[in-house]
Structure formats: structure tokens, C-alpha cells
Amino acid sequence: MTTIAVTTWSLEQTAPADLRPAAAPEGDVRVVRSEVPSPEFSRFLYASVGGDIRWTDRLGWTYAQWTEHLDRPGVETWVAYDRGTPAGYVELEAQRDGVVEIVYFGLIPAFRGRRIGGHLLSLGTARAWDLAERHPGLKPTRRVWLHTCSKDGEHAMDNYLRRGFTLFDTKVENEPEVATPGPWPGAHPA
């Protein structure tokens, strides 16, 4: 089996004032919380956003696994829509002691390069900072973190840095090289 070296960078914000919001893109772009847990919709977003950058860890999840994950307190999905069409999403997950991870973030390939990503990351990060306000029993957020890797989009790291995230860890590991799953064979940007 062929392996590839993958660099993973972990970044964080330690105060709400760290967030440097991006300007809103032109046009009818809205970011809305998906308040009703929907395994079908979440799997669609995951496969559509991550299909060309080798997101594979959740592809084998069963319906029950998706349901169990989405029903956890402090797990939220925020979806960007461009004129009513899903364009991308950010998934937040409350962790222990007031820590929130941005577990997944990205855009469907056809929507990249339109300045939607900075806007979505800004709003998603702001929602990470006020997550406890929507989930009684969670501690107030004191840290927001995420990781990105060398398999992610070429502008991912720059977007995180522009939004005020700072690097706190770097790792390089060999991973099995897997085929790009795509949302389905032959899919490509519109």
C-alpha cells in the first residue's frame, strides 16, 4: 500500500476578541443553523465538501452512528446557502471544560473562490464562542480550536490565520494513500 506524508496543523483562539471576521460576500449568502439533526443531510454535506480532499473517516458510518453523533449536546451544524443552495458547512463540537472544536469546515467545490469560506468560518467561529448560550449545562467557551492538513484546500490555512487563529502544534505522519472518493464518481465543480 502506498503512503503519503501528511502534515497536520492545529490552531486555536483563546478569547472571542481573537476572531477577525471576514467581510460578507456579495449576493444572497446566508448561514443558518441546521437545528433538526438529520443524518442524511449531514452525510450529504460531509461527502460533498470533503469528497475531493479525501475525507473518508465518516463515510462508513451507519445511520445510527450519525444519529448518535448529531444528538450529542453541543454538536451543531451551520450551513452556508448561496441563493438557497447548500454551499458548505461548519460543524462544532463541545468538548470538556469550555473547549469547542471546529470539527469540519469547508465548501462544496463549485462554491469555492467566491469569498463564502471566510464568511462561513467567521460566523461558525462566533457561534463556537457563544455555544454554551444555546446548550444549558455546557461551560462557557474559553477556547476554540481546529486542525487542518496538507490534504485540505490550498487556501485553508490562510483563511484560518486571517480569522485570528494561531498555530499551536504541527505533526507529520505517513497515511495510506486513498482514492479521492468524491460525492460520486465523475463529480466536478459547476
Any overview of this molecule?
The protein has 190 residues and is α+β, with helices and mostly antiparallel strands. The chain has 5 helices and 7 strands, in the order E-E-H-H-E-E-E-H-H-E-H-E. It has helices at residues 39-50, 63-70, 116-129, 131-134, 156-162; strands at residues 3-13, 29-33, 75-82, 85-94, 99-107, 143-149, 166-176. A 7-stranded mixed sheet has the order 2-3-4-5-6-1-7, sandwiched between helices. A hairpin with a 2-residue loop joins strand 3 (75-82) and strand 4. Helix 1 packs across helix 2. The longest helix has 14 residues, at 116-129. The radius of gyration is 16 Å and the shape is globular. The termini are far apart. The mean pLDDT is 93. It comes from Streptomyces pilosus. InterPro entries: Acyl_CoA_acyltransferase, GNAT_dom. This is N-acetyltransferase.
What does the secondary structure layout of this molecule look like, with pairings?
Blueprint: E1 3-13, E2 29-33, H1 39-50, H2 63-70, E3 75-82, E4 85-94, E5 99-107, H3 116-129, H4 131-134, E6 143-149, H5 156-162, E7 166-176
Parallel strand pairs: 5-6
Antiparallel strand pairs: 1-6, 1-7, 2-3, 3-4, 4-5
Helix pairs in contact: 1-2
Compact summary:
The protein is of the alpha+beta class. Helices cover 24% and strands 32% of the residues.
Strand adjacency order, main sheet: 2-3-4-5-6-1-7
Unreliable stretches: none
Radius of gyration of CA atoms, rounded to a whole number = 16 Å
- What overall form do the CA principal axes indicate? globular
Cα end-to-end separation: 33 Å
Mean pLDDT: 93
Beta-strand fraction estimate: 25-35%
What is the total tally of β strands?
7
How many strands, which pairing sense, and closed or not: the largest β-sheet?
7 strands, mixed
Helicity, in percent?
Answer: 10-25%
Structural class: alpha+beta
Domain N-acetyltransferase: 39-190
Pfam families: Acetyltransf_1
Protein name: N-acetyltransferase
Organism: Streptomyces pilosus
